[in-house]
Amino acid sequence: MDRSVKIARAVAAGLVFVTAAYHLWWGFPRMLVYLQGLGSLASRGLIPDPRPFLFVAFALVLLAGPYLVTREYLTVRRGYLAGAGLMVLSFLAWVAWHQTGHGAFLTGLPAPETGGHTHGGVLYTIYDHYVTTPIEGVIKSVELLAAGLFTWLLRRDPAASESTVDDDAPVGGDRATRE
């Protein structure tokens, strides 16, 4: 295997770990708070912010990816495709959340006041959130870089090449049990 492929694999894994760690760091404590008050919220007809639950689920899926590939439940190629897709999906979901009034579409209520910034289009939203909340900009940059690396690895990693992948082979378990 090419040295650049090994380095790209390590960097991509690190970027995915950073993304998962951030989503757990942000989502897990908020999820616990919502779970403690879920009965009270439901009795008043209020819907809690879904992001903490989605962030934790997203982080767990990201962390499961390498496990599934190393245990051969997923091929390397499918792992790269899933990784790139999840990273792009996270970025697009972030943009959609901020373009639709921070979840106001869930409740039918008007969008909350956003503390002085206005959303003047997709590019402005991205720029504004990169500037006003730099940690979001860093994480979204990490996700886009990871997606780019996964795409690059799809083309350069011999383990992900079309000729080495047997998509009709059974998936799951150790290679020894399938042979």
Descriptive account of the structure:
This protein has a domain at 3-91 and 140-159. 71% of the residues lie in helices and 0% in strands. It has helices at residues 3-43, 51-70, 76-99, 104-107, 122-132, 134-156, 175-178. α3 packs antiparallel against α6 (134-156). The mean pLDDT is 85.
Question: How far is the first residue's CA from the last residue's CA?
Answer: 24 Å
Number of helices: 7
Label the overall shape: globular
Radius of gyration: 19 Å
Taken as a percent bin, the fraction of beta residues is: under 5%
Major sheet size, sense and barrel closure: none
Coarse structural class: mainly alpha
| Mean pLDDT over all positions | 85
Helix content: over 70%
Beta-strand segment tally? 0
Low-confidence stretches: none
H-E order: HHHHHHH
Features:
mainly alpha, 179 residues
Short account of what is shown:
The chain is 71% helix and 0% strand. With 179 residues, the protein is mainly alpha-helical. It starts with a helix and ends with a helix.
Layout: helices, strands, pairs:
Blueprint: H1 3-43, H2 51-70, H3 76-99, H4 104-107, H5 122-132, H6 134-156, H7 175-178
